[in-house]
Specification:
This is Peptidase S9. With about 650 residues, the protein is α+β, with helices and mostly antiparallel strands. The chain contains eleven helices and 38 strands. The protein has a domain of about 260 residues: Alpha/Beta hydrolase fold, catalytic domain (Rossmann fold, 3-Layer(aba) Sandwich).
Length: about 650
C-alpha cells in the first residue's frame, strides 16, 4: 500500500511539474537568423562508396564573415565527422586510394593558393604544392599518382618594395570583371604534377586559357575546355579539347559550336564524353539553356540529346555501365533529378514534388546517388537517392527550424495583359486569418535567366515574417519554362517583364490577398533593374527597394562587364542610340516616378556598377521623391559580409514599414 501511494505521489508530482513548465512559443524568422543557418555543398563520394565528403558554410559572427568546414558522413548516415575547423579549404576531393582528402587553400601568409593533403583519419593538413600562380581547378588521375591543374600565370604587377601598386596596364577588349577587377593579359594553363617526384610538367602555353581539366578513365588523356577563337574576349565561345597527359602533346579539338561547350564528363569506358552545349551560338549566350550532348572521345559527330525537352539540365553524371546519364533539370519552379538515354535522348523524371535539388554525385558502388535538396520549409540537407527514394543523411537544419513559425508558401499562376501565363510563389505570414488583405511585396529575382524555385527562400521568408504577402514571379526571361520564355525579352528590356510583374500584382489583388493601396517592389541585380522599370511604368506601388540596379543603360557601355552582350543585343551606342535610350527609360522618364525608393549598391561591383544606383538616387532627389542611397563598402556584386546582409534585410523592412504599413 505504501509503495502504491509513493508511486502515485511521485507520478502526481512529476505530472504537475511537467504541466507547469511553459512551452517556448514559436517565433517569426528574423534578419539575425542568418547567423544560425548552415549550408551544405560540394559533395564528393569516397572511392569505396562508403563515405560522403561535403562542405558546411556558416557565419563566424566574431569575425563577421562566412567560414567553411569539411565534413564526412557515412553512407548509412550513422557517423558524421568534422575534418577541418573554419580554415580556408575549397575544391575538396578524395585521393583515389581513399586514404587522403585534398583541398585548395592558403595558410599563414601565403600569397597563392596551394593543394593540401589531409589524412582522413585525422591530424593536420600538409602542403603538397608550392606554385607561384593561383590554382583555378585540379583533378586526380585515376591511379592517384598525378594531379592535373589549371594554374593562373604568375602576377608580376606588384613586385615593388613600396605599398604603391603599379598602374593597371590594359589592352584587352573585355577588361573588367566582378571580383577579379581589372583584367590583364594573364591566362590559366594546364599542368601535370607528379606526387612522387613533385615534378610539374607544362601541358599548355600561350595566349589562351584552359579550364575544367579531367583525366580519362585510363589516365592517359585529359579533356578540357578553352576559347581559342580569334578574339576570345569578344564572345562566349568555348570548345572541348582532348590531349595526352604528357608534356609536349598537342591538344585535339573535339567541338566547333560557336556558342559554349563545357563541363566534359568521360563515360566509364572512356569512349564517349558527355557535356553541356549552349542552345545559342551567338557571341553572348545568356538567353539560352544548356543542352546535354555526347561526342566520341576520339572525335566524330556529336549528338544533342535534350533539345526537345526544352529545359535546362546540368550536373551530368554517367551511371555504372554507361548506358544512362543522370542530371538535374529545371522545370517550372522545381529542380528534379532526371535520367537521359545517351542513345535516344529520352529524358525521364526520377523525382517529383515541390522541392529543389542543388547538386548530385553518383555512387558507383551503391548504384545510387547523393544529393543536396531543399523544400519551401526546410533548408538544404544531404539525402541518399536510392532507386527513386530519398533517405535523409544530415540534420543540419533541426536546430535552425526548432524555434521558428514559418510563413505559409504556395504556388500560383497569373495572367499578364497580353494573355501570357506566369508562374509564381506566394509567401504569407504564419497564422494569417482567412480573407485578410495584406500589404504586398513583389521581390524580383535577378538574372534575368534563372528561376524562383520551391526551395527554402530566406529572403522572402524574412519579409513575409515581417507581416507582408511576398510574391516571387518568374517573369518572361526566366528559365524553367522553355527557350521561348527566356528569349522573349531579347533586346526589349523593361517591357514584358514589367507586364508580368504588374499582372501578378493584379492577380493577387483580385484574389483578395493583396491590398492594392499598399503594394511594394524590390530586387537585386536584374531584380533591381526591373524594379526601376516598373516604378517608371506603374505609379500604384507605394514603396520600392532597388539593389544593384541600373536605368541609364547608355552610361554602362565600357563601365561594366557586359560589353559583348550590349554589342550583340543592342548594337553600338553610336550606331543605335534610339535603342539604348529606349531601354534607359526609367532615367529619361524619372519625372513619372512617384514611388519612394531606396537604392542600394556595392562599392566594388563591376557587374552592375554603383553608378546605376547613384544616378537614380540623384534623379529622385532632384525631383523631391522620397529616396535614399546605401552603399556597402568593398563589396562585389554579391554581398559577402554577414552584418551587411543583416543590415540589408533590416533596411528593406524599415523602408516597407514606413510606406506600406
Amino acid at each position: 500500500m505504501r509503495a502504491f501511494l509513493l508511486a502515485f505521489l511521485l507520478f502526481t508530482f512529476s505530472y504537475s511539474v511537467t504541466a507547469q513548465v511553459p512551452q517556448t512559443p514559436k517565433r517569426p524568422l528574423f534578419p539575425s537568423d542568418i547567423y544560425r543557418l548552415q549550408t551544405p555543398s560540394s559533395l564528393e563520394i569516397s572511392p569505396d562508396g562508403n563515405w560522403i565528403l561535403y562542405t558546411v558554410r556558416k557565419v563566424d559572427s566574431a569575425k563577421d564573415k562566412f567560414s567553411s568546414s569539411l565534413w564526412m558522413i557515412s553512407w548509412d548516415g550513422k557517423e558524421n565527422v568534422q575534418l577541418t575547423f573554419d580554415k580556408s579549404a575549397s575544391s575538396a576531393k578524395w585521393s583515389p586510394d581513399g586514404k587522403y582528402i585534398s583541398f585548395v587553400g592558403t595558410r599563414d601568409d601565403e600569397k597563392n593558393s596551394q593543394v593540401y593533403l589531409l589524412d582522413r583519419r585525422g591530424g593536420e593538413a600538409r602542403k603538397l604544392t608550392s606554385f607561384k600562380g593561383d590554382i583555378d581547378e585540379y583533378n586526380w588521375s585515376p591511379a592517384g599518382d598525378r594531379l592535373v591543374l589549371s594554374i593562373k600565370d604568375e602576377d608580376f604587377s606588384d613586385t615593388a618594395n613600396t605599398k604603391i601598386r603599379k598602374p593597371y596596364v590594359i589592352d584587352r577588349y573585355h577588361f573588367k570583371q566582378d571580383r577579379q577587377g581589372y583584367l590583364d593579359s594573364a591566362a590559366s594553363h594546364l599542368y601535370v604534377f607528379t606526387l612522387a617526384t613533385k615534378k610539374l610538367d607544362t601541358l599548355t602555353r600561350g595566349f589562351y586559357s584552359e579550364e575544367q581539366p579531367v583525366f580519362s578513365p585510363d589516365g592517359k588523356q585529359i579533356a578540357f575546355v578553352s576559347n581559342r577563337s580569334t578574339l576570345p574576349d569578344n564572345n562566349a565561345n568555348s570548345d572541348l579539347f582532348v590531349m595526352e597527359a604528357r608534356a609536349g602533346a598537342s591538344p585535339r579539338k573535339l567541338t566547333s559550336w560557336e556558342g559554349s561547350d563545357e563541363q566534359p564528363v568521360w563515360s566509364p569506358d572512356g569512349k564517349m564524353i558527355a557535356y553541356l552545349q549552349s542552345s545559342s551560338n551567338e557571341p553572348f549566350t545568356m538567353y539560352g539553356q544548356p543542352l546535354v550532348t555526347v561526342i566520341p572521345a576520339n572525335g566524330g559527330e556529336k549528338k544533342v540529346l535534350t533539345a526537345e525537352a526544352d529545359r535546362p539540365i546540368r550536373n551530368l553524371r554517367w551511371n555504372n555501365d554507361g548506358n544512362q546519364l543522370t542530371g538535374l533539370m529545371e522545370d517550372d519552379r522545381e529542380v528534379v533529378i532526371v535520367s537521359i538515354d545517351p542513345a535516344t535522348g529520352k529524358v525521364t523524371r526520377l523525382t517529383s514534388g515541390e522541392r529543389s535539388f542543388y547538386e548530385m554525385e553518383w555512387n558507383r558502388h551503391k548504384n545510387s546517388a547523393v544529393t543536396v535538396m531543399s523544400t519551401v520549409y526546410v533548408p538544404a540537407e544531404l539525402f541518399a537517392f536510392e532507386g527513386r527514394e530519398l533517405r535523409q543523411l544530415t540534420h543540419l537544419q533541426d536546430s535552425f527550424l526548432a524555434p521558428l513559425h514559418l510563413p505559409k508558401v504556395e504556388g500560383f499562376r497569373s495572367k499578364s495583359k497580353d494573355g501570357t501565363s506566369i508562374s509564381g510563389i506566394l509567401y504569407r505570414p504564419a497564422s494569417t486569418p482567412a480573407g485578410t488583405k495584406l500589404p504586398l511585396i513583389i521581390f524580383i529575382h535577378g538574372g534575368p535567366v534563372g528561376q524562383d524555385e520551391f526551395d527554402f527562400d530566406l529572403d522572402r521568408m524574412i519579409y513575409a515574417s515581417a507581416g507582408y504577402a511576398v510574391a516571387a514571379v518568374n517573369y518572361r526571361g526566366s528559365s524553367g519554362r522553355g527557350l521561348n520564355h527566356i528569349k522573349s525579352i531579347y533586346g526589349d528590356w523593361g517591357n514584358k517583364e514589367v507586364m508580368d510583374i504588374v499582372g501578378a500584382a493584379d492577380h493577387l489583388v483580385a484574389q483578395g490577398i493583396a491590398d492594392v493601396a499598399r503594394m511594394g517592389l524590390g530586387g537585386w541585380s536584374y531584380g533591381g533593374i526591373t524594379t526601376n522599370y516598373t516604378i517608371a511604368t506603374d505609379q500604384r506601388f507605394k514603396a520600392a527597394v532597388s539593389g544593384a540596379g541600373s536605368s541609364l543603360q547608355l552610361s554602362l557601355y565600357g563601365s561594366d562587364q557586359y560589353v559583348t552582350q550590349y554589342e550583340k543585343e543592342l548594337g553600338y551606342p553610336w550606331k543605335n542610340p534610339e535603342k539604348w535610350i529606349a531601354v534607359s527609360y526609367p532615367f529619361f522618364k524619372a519625372d513619372r516616378i512617384k514611388t519612394p525608393t531606396l537604392f542600394m549598391a556595392s562599392e566594388s561591383d563591376f557587374n552592375v556598377p554603383v553608378t546605376g544606383a547613384e544616378q537614380m538616387y540623384q534623379a529622385l532627389k532632384a525631383l523631391n521623391v522620397p529616396t535614399g542611397l546605401i552603399i556597402y563598402p568593398k563589396q562585389y556584386h554579391g554581398i559577402s559580409v554577414p552584418s551587411y546582409l543583416k543590415d540589408r534585410y533590416q533596411r528593406h523592412i524599415a523602408w516597407y514599414n514606413k510606406y506600406l504599413k
